[in-house]
Amino acid sequence: MTCEMPRLDPDRDLVAYFCAEYGIDERLPIYSGGLGVLAGDHLKTANDLSVPLVAVGLLYGEGYLRQRIDGDGRQHADPDPVEPERFGLSLARDLRGRELRVHVPLEHHMLHLRIWRGAVGSIPLILLDTRCPENRSEDQGITARLYGGDHTTRLQQEVVLGIGGVRALRALGLEPSVWHLNEGHAAFTILERVREHVAAGLDFSAAVECVASNTVFTTHTPVPAGHDVFNLGHLRHWLGDYLGSLHTTERRLRTLGAIPHKPDAFSMTALALRGSRYCNAVSRVHRGVAAQAESYAWPAIPPEENPVRFVANAVHLPTFLAAEWQQDFDQLLPDWRSRVLQPANCDWIGELSDGDFLRRRMPPKTRLLEDLRRRLGEQHRRNGVAPDIAETSLQRLQLPPEKLLVCGFARRFATYKRATLLLGDAQRLARLLGDDTRPVVIVFAGKAHPHDGGGQQMIAELYHASLRPEFLGKLMVVEGYDLALGRSLTQGCDVWLNNPEYPLEASGTSGMKSAVNGGINVSILDGWWADGCDGHNGVGIPPRTDLEGHARYHAEAEAMLDALERQIVPRYFEAPAEWLRMSRHAMQTLIPLYGGARMLSDYVRGFYAPAADHGRRLRERNRRNAIEFARWKRLVASAWDGLRVDITSFSPLQATIALNGLPALDLHVEAHWPGGNGALRLDREENGVAYFVLDNGMPTEGGCELRVRPTHPLLAHPFEMGVQLRVALPR
Questions:
Q1: Going by DSSP bridges, is the β-strand pair 681-686/676-679 parallel, antiparallel, or unpaired?
Q2: Does the reported pTM lie above 0.90?
Q3: Are 148 and 78 in contact (CB under 8 A)?
Q4: Please, are residues 217 and 626 in contact by the beta-carbon 8 Å criterion?
Q5: Distances (CA, A) of 639 to 147, 628, 662, 717
Q6: Neighbouring residues of 409: CB distance < 8 A, sequence distance ≥ 6
Q7: Do strands 123-129 and 109-120 pair parallel, antiparallel, or not at all (unpaired)?
Q8: In contact, 276 and 195? CB cutoff 8 Å
Q9: 251-293 pLDDT tens trace
Q10: Which is nearest to 453 in space by CA: 103, 77, 48, 706?
């Protein structure tokens, strides 16, 4: 990790960041969970680091959902109305003071969009909505609720976000040099920008190259529900006239969104992959999963070598770090908010005495206990819980904070996150929580999507368990999970629990927020924790990938309980000095790794700056570079299957390639062997045959092979085209 923050040129660079949700502030409920909170942290960090960025999203009139849990444990998804002016949003207006509108095509008519303008510090925030009097009543409800409605509503919202978002930026006079799609929901930006280039005179293939050259795509989940797939007939129905304006064949358009084994499907993830040249997952583990799942985009390339990379997620420290710690940073490192923190910047935490450390740790925990007493008290009164039961349920929360071990589990309630895992051995959990000499509470919070029956069932199961005598006052379910409750929990909990089904937790960020405040993660080694855990800053539970189904579920539940029973609880109550050493170490090691400045620095250095430069190169010579590059790709695609490779000698290694019309200089030829590789030199080209030779030696044993791929100075990645010839070399 370097100290220097890479820079974009604010005079010519602007990153347009598109996301379907933003978790910026609890007063603006246009987020559902981790994706939105991460997007909000991205904007805040861009402001801190002066990265030129504009954010585009949707303004949902009814928000996401305001969660109530009734006396039967049922989640009620009440509207959470958005008040734009309360958050400082205002309608964009033209020079005459009239509301500025943009329009998108939808089912043979034009949909009118309002443009709301706001800011996150210096970062412009552009939000679109369909509540215009010019729209039909049914169209005014398209942007009513985040992830609301049916599959058609989802398609319509993504048209508004993608096509409407590009048009809104144009209407506001903004010219991005980089386009960052945070998940596939915004992939229609690709089609709209292609349409612009086609309208300016480019053919479809060259237009795609221009667009892809400066597009960054971040994929966030391996779970199928997170990847929108539309039926081609459905797409044609809603965008038929618009698709015609792309001036391409249906076959070529279909190819952009094609996924294996679903001939009538149009995948937004596939469109984003094929319409971008810079793609990343959000943790090292997730990179492997995503590269495998999306390998169809580069069919001849092994997943471990394809263009998917990763940038580990992170959190905005000034938002989630408790005030007590921020005060110390302000004194010791006044510019800490605007720099990438290094491990040495956090050495002072490890040097704090136990007493000094506790003086900073205890106030956030005290505030959390007060917050929980208030929230649970109100929840019990509304649900008619008997006064004696309600009183018992709050007793442990009245203990002195240092005498109580508080464990938290708070996140979106999706089934793969397995919120109920510890209930898999309810008797053992009851014994663990039932020891009044070592009092422990586990607090659960989180929302399930209104259409996710499995997630809602988990909430109900935990709620019913919380009222059972053996768990009353020891296992708690708190409604209304939002940014405010999330901050309270992550700043105050001693332990953060996470037990997803490996490898479905792409990253996760709630555990980071706890760790940077001194919380101890006890988690399955998935997502961010697989890299963050060093064995001394928390507890990593290896996933039992050797087992399946119930056996795996049971084994991982027992492993989590083992960690709590044998490591966490004894250490907290019986070896406090050792506990505090681990808590300090968590902060010291994880703040530099998972602060948002590191994440944004990785994006600028590895994605934004290269994409901006790549986009400019494609547009050089009045976009002749893009035209010639697209033509070259068509030549490679038409000739590739006709290439023929022959090995003429092994010592030295010599090969001939029948070029089938390709120039020999457009081929990169390489020998691979265990532990090494070497490029072959072009010796000569005669009569359509190229002669290549390896000047250096090669092992005489082992699995050696010859690999041939196309090469061009404008390729963003060596395997961008997804083609490669591999010839085994028998020894």
A1: unpaired
A2: yes
A3: no
A4: no
A5: 45, 16, 7, 20
A6: 419, 442, 443, 444, 445, 446, 496, 497, 498
A7: antiparallel
A8: no
A9: 999 999 999 999 999 999 999 999 999 999 999 999 999 999 9
A10: 77
